Each structure stands twice: as structure tokens, then as C-alpha cells.
Amino acid sequence: MDKEQRLAPSEKDYTALFLDQRKRLAARILIDAPALRKRARESNGEISGEIGGKFGVKVAIEVVDEIEEITIAFDLRTLGGTRYIPAILAALEPDGDWEQTDAMPSRPLEHYESAFSHMGVNE
């Protein structure tokens, strides 16, 4: 209770709330990232989407013979830092070695974007 005898959340309540929010965000990333990858494969160009209900991204996939390159540009205005980038990249390609890049396949990056690409075998 607070000074005015109102029921108030405890520190333990806040800890549980924030933990629950992180778990839900992780689940959304694991659902949204593969869905965007699928949409990008079906598209002939760059697609826009949202991961985790709040992170704006652009995804492009280029396939030549058996080689596939996936590129993702994060909108840093919605990302609020870089801490979620590794989780999103792992959800897109769990076994991938991602490298930072300075362009999407068909355009340079906007000043508010940061991009990564991964090259692998098309399945």
C-alpha cells in the first residue's frame, strides 16, 4: 500500500510483469521472423513488416541457383537500441553467420536503417 492506503504494485509485481513482457516478445519474434522470411521468399522484391509487434523491418531474399542471400534492414527508430537484433537474426536463420551490410539488394540504406545479410544454401 502507498501513503494514502491504496493498493500499489510491489517490486515483485513489476519484476513479474517485465519478465512476462519479455517472454511474449520472444514468442512474437519466433513467430513473426519466419513468417516475414516466407513472405520475402514468395515476393520478387523487398517487403516491409513488423517483428514483435513493434520493430519495423524490410526483408529481401535473392536466390541464384542454390545460393540464397537474405538481407534485413532494421528501422532504428522503432528498434530502440540494438539488443534485440541478435534474437531477430537467429529467428530468421538460426544457423546463419550474419554480416552487417551497407545496402539492401536494390537500394542504399536510409539514414535510420541498419542492415545485415546472410548467404546460404537455398532449401
Mean pLDDT: 87
The largest sheet has its strands arranged as 1-2-3-7-4
Low-confidence stretches: none
Radius of gyration: 18 Å
* Structure annotation, total helices: 3
For the report, how would you describe the main beta sheet? 5 strands, antiparallel
Morphology: elongated
- The count of domains is 1
How does this model look, in words?
This protein has 123 residues and is of the alpha+beta class. It has one domain (11-121). It has three helices and seven strands, in the order H-E-E-E-H-H-E-E-E-E. The chain has helices at residues 11-42, 76-79, 85-92, and strands at residues 47-51, 55-64, 67-75, 99-101, 103-104, 107-108, 113-121. The strands form two sheets. The chain has a five-stranded antiparallel sheet with strand order 1-2-3-7-4. The protein has a two-stranded antiparallel ribbon with strand order 5-6. Helix 1 crosses helix 3. The radius of gyration is 18 Å and the shape is elongated. It starts with 10 loop residues before the first helix and ends with a strand. 22% of the residues are buried. The model has no long low-confidence stretch (mean pLDDT 87).
